[in-house]
Design brief:
6-stranded mixed sheet; elongated
Length: 867
């Protein structure tokens, strides 16, 4: 399920270089003694700080630069010491070190109460200042500001103690002799200190965003966040009330503050494991778990601040597939940006969707052998703070390796392709398929090759699944992907899945065996920062929480394509689409973007005809979606929303084109597929069936289709279906007659009896704007149709202008054989004398022929003669 990609190996990158240096110091060819190398800290810029035991009885501290791939010695202690915390300022002029005091060197692995904290000048080595000498653990961490100044004459150091307080040291520097950087007034350092936090039981440092999270437990468990700004000012910006068990921590917990190899707590002392993850677009997740109880059940909670809710999960661990050994006490929480992965080694992996959390079917839960990451012991694994790369990073402290954890697309594709009827362990249920499909399309969908593999799967699985329509899910998830990075609030207002509208189906998708989820809405979060300072991430997070509360109060805030159902039905029923010309400007924007994207060879004849109805539907969709977003998310701005909706609909048309091109290539269809005189082969039957599924799925969502789709579909229908079935498809609205198709039908098919009946049936079903096609068929049936239209036109004009008088019975030539027919013929004769002929380019209509045609139609209507 997860791929581990190694990005750092302590032995390969560091130890081999240390052995060469120690061999040089000892003047030997090879140094074979143990150097006891330990990772101490990983700074914001990727610098790895480490210590090792020197050959001459010293302890040395070095750094590995991930950019240059070079190692550098920073400082050497003249004896062996226990470094429990270490940090380097960005300019590499100061080194802060916290030492665990040992009475005997042989006992250095035991917990020690005495701690000494030093601030050391290393450029050059000149002075050492004692910051703290206390009987508790101390963590040190420099602030790293974002600037390109070559000369920085101040540094700022956080000092966090196990007694529960945090101090910020402002260290002023000065230059001597042009290159020596030293502390300006080391004796006054204590005066340049301010207390940031008074009391905490848990603390986490986010070095990339320069934030300090801490938890207080005086009356209630309150999570606070202190934000440090580039000018080194700081303020509390968030308070969040958490529901934690009583006495969650026996000792103070430090997260992301280096690795203390000399203070190793027993696992059972960690009653709650907790971590905070954020994303720059304004999402914040607080994750915590309680230890496994009786080896049967694990409880963990995700507080989704940006969604104003929390979700508590209870997972049953008893399973025949689980290993017969005691599980780890706590799972690992691994951030990937879009998902939070909850991993309990050998038992389960839960990919929790932090963006579309309403339904469990959009989160993926796997158990058994599918979730083995190949790590030795998850208890020795540390999840590192997030970087620009959304992939989670895992540090194995035992081996000294850092891996990036990425979801494996090959495994997710295997879930899609698994056979539900199979009894093998690899068979997957519909909820897993749905979650895997969304994970592939939304989280990994920027890969065109991956998208084509999913389309191939759609081609191979044309029939819909029991609980969801895979083509609808493919379209909606792919469309959502192009917009989900724009704003978190789009999660609630854009279509994401068709199962939201299928309440009877959603129930079975919500059931995940062995997993019980409880959701709590409206968590207590308070933003404390001043209005001027809530910028960037905090501004986005505050906006997301406020907008979430607003959207929760609005009925049906998510845009559904059914919103345009009434307008769509009206458009399809109208005989003349001229009333919708105001949508055509939006259509032009969409089609111009599609033309820009479609620079490769076009295998399928789409976008090559007018198809006014589909063009109008395209513009209607753009306008309705734009109106919806402007109403609910005005903060995005009209320009951004307009660009978004145009790209959205253009991507829709491209997705359909990609699906058709894929099936075209799969069945190796060529130009002959457009020939109406040949019957369809099995390959064309398969393509016709796939196009019908696309049509069915898009109709269910009220989505427009690319101009030319209905023409191509009708051509395949004529080739594949019996004529009576073909006509039924038209009558039920599955087939829309386009001018291009009817024109080709009239000209390409000969006038055999079967083709005559087909053409006449088509003519009877033509909408009014296409009646000029009658003239393309030189046949008496076509002439009859022209005559009927001619009569109707004359009568309509006469009724509108003057009305009809019935006073001419005594005129010469009056024939009383069949009064209704005779009267009709007389009316037409009188009208023809004053009416303009709408078919001036044709020969004069034979009045006798009109009379015979009218008689024949009258007998048919009266039931005296068959059609």
């Amino acid at each position: 399920m997860l791929k581990l990609k190694p990005t750092f190996d302590l032995h390969r990158e560091v130890v081999s270089d240390i052995l060469r240096k120690e061999a040089s110091v000892c003047r030997v060819k090879e140094y074979s003694e143990a150097v006891d190398t330990r990772i101490l800290n990983i700074e914001r810029d990727g610098v790895v700080l480490y210590s090792w035991k020197g050959a001459t009885g010293t302890t040395r501290i070095g750094k590995y630069d991930s950019d240059t791939k070079q190692n550098k010695l920073l400082y050497t202690f003249d004896k062996q010491v226990c470094v429990s915390s270490c940090s380097l300022n960005k300019e590499e002029t100061l080194l802060a070190v916290s030492l665990a005091q040992n009475t005997r060197g042989e006992e250095r692995l035991k917990p020690i109460s005495k701690c000494l904290t030093l601030l050391i000048e290393i450029h050059p080595i000149n002075n050492t200042k004692v910051l703290k000498a206390v009987d508790c653990r101390v963590k040190v961490q420099f602030l790293h500001e974002e600037n390109d100044r070559r000369s920085v004459l101040d540094s700022h150091l956080l000092l966090l103690t196990e007694d529960g307080y945090v101090d910020l040291y402002h260290v002023l520097l000065t230059k001597q002799e042009g290159y020596r950087v030293v502390m300006a007034n080391p004796e006054r350092l204590s005066r340049m200190t301010e207390r940031i936090v008074e009391d905490f039981c848990w603390v986490q440092w986010d070095g990339h965003e320069q934030r300090l999270y801490y938890l207080t437990d005086k009356d209630k468990f309150l999570l606070r966040c202190v934000q440090f700004y580039p000018n080194h000012n700081c303020e509390t910006v968030l308070e969040l009330l958490l529901e934690l068990p009583a006495n969650p921590f026996h000792t103070v917990r430090f997260v992301n503050l280096g690795f203390d190899h000399f203070h190793i707590e027993r696992p059972e002392q960690e009653l709650v494991r907790m971590q905070v993850f954020t994303n720059r677009i304004g999402s914040m997740c607080v994750c915590y778990s309680q230890p496994v109880k009786d080896e049967q059940e694990l409880i963990y909670t995700l507080v989704l601040v940006h969604k104003d809710c929390s979700k508590k999960f209870r997972v049953t661990l008893g399973s025949d597939e689980s290993p017969q050994r005691a599980p780890p006490l706590h799972p690992l929480f691994i951030p990937t940006g879009y998902y939070i992965l909850v991993y309990l080694q050998g038992y389960f992996l839960h990919c929790i969707n932090t963006r579309q959390q309403e339904m469990l079917c959009h989160s993926l839960f796997l158990s058994g052998q599918d979730v083995n990451l190949g790590l030795q012991e998850s208890g020795n694994i540390t999840v590192l703070q997030a970087e620009e790369d959304p992939s989670g990073r895992l540090l194995d402290l035992v081996s000294g390796r850092i891996h990036t954890a990425e979801l494996n697309p090959a495994f997710l594709l295997q879930i899609l392709q698994s056979d539900t009827s199979s009894r093998c362990p690899s068979s997957k249920s519909d909820p897993q398929r749905l979650a895997a499909l969304h994970c592939l399309l939304v989280y990994m969908g920027n890969d065109p090759n991956l998208e084509m593999k999913i389309i191939e799967w759609l081609c191979d699985n044309v029939n819909t699944f029991e609980s969801f329509d895979q083509i609808q899910e493919f379209i909606l998830a792919s469309l959502y992907r192009i917009s989900y990075e724009k704003s978190l609030n789009l999660d609630k207002v854009l279509p994401y899945s068709s199962v939201f509208d299928k309440k009877e189906v959603a129930a079975c998708l919500l059931e995940v065996p062995g997993v019980l989820c409880t959701t709590e809405l409206h968590i207590e979060s308070i933003f404390k920062g001043k209005a001027r300072s809530l910028q960037g991430f905090w501004s986005e997070l505050q906006w997301n929480t406020e907008r979430t509360k607003y959207l929760d109060a609005v009925p049906n805030p998510r845009y559904r394509m059914s919103h345009i159902q009434a307008d769509w039905d009206k458009l399809r029923s109208e005989r003349r689409p001229s009333s919708h010309m105001n949508h055509m400007e939006s259509t032009k924007k969409v089609l111009s973007m599609v033309d820009t994207w479609s620079l490769d060879k076009k295998l399928v004849p789409l976008f090559q005809e007018e198809d006014h109805q589909q063009r109008t539907l395209i513009g209607l969709t753009v306008d309705k979606l734009r109106e919806h977003l402007n109403r609910h998310l005005p903060r995005l701005g009209k320009k951004k929303i307009d660009s978004l909706v145009v790209s959205y609909v253009a991507k829709l048309l491209e997705l359909i084109r990609h699906m058709l091109e894929s099936v075209w290539l799969k069945y190796k269809l060529g130009p002959r597929v457009l020939c109406l005189t040949q019957r369809g082969r099995p390959a064309e039957w398969s393509v016709f069936h796939f196009m019908f599924r696309i049509l069915e799925s898009t109709r269910g969502l009220c989505l427009p289709l690319p101009p030319g789709f209905h023409t191509l579909f009708a051509v395949l229908a004529v080739r594949c279906l019996p004529h009576h079935t073909f006509l039924q498809y038209i009558d039920h609205g599955f087939l829309l007659l386009t001018e291009t198709f009817v024109t080709r039908l009239m000209t390409d098919l000969d006038n055999s009896d079967a083709n005559e009946r087909l053409k006449f049936s088509i003519l009877k079903r033509l909408p009014e704007p296409m009646e000029r096609i009658y003239h393309m068929w030189d046949h008496p049936v076509s002439s009859a149709s022209i005559s009927r239209d001619y009569v109707r036109t004359l009568l309509e004009r006469q009724y509108k202008n003057k009305g009809i008088a019935f006073t001419d019975r005594d005129k010469p030539g009056f024939r009383p054989e069949f009064l209704p027919l005779t009267h009709l013929a007389k009316i037409l004769s009188d009208i023809e004398e004053q009416a303009l002929n709408p078919f001036e380019e044709q020969e004069n209509v034979d009045a006798r022929f009109v009379e015979e045609t009218a008689l024949k139609q009258t007998l048919i209507l009266l039931g005296f003669e068959e059609k």
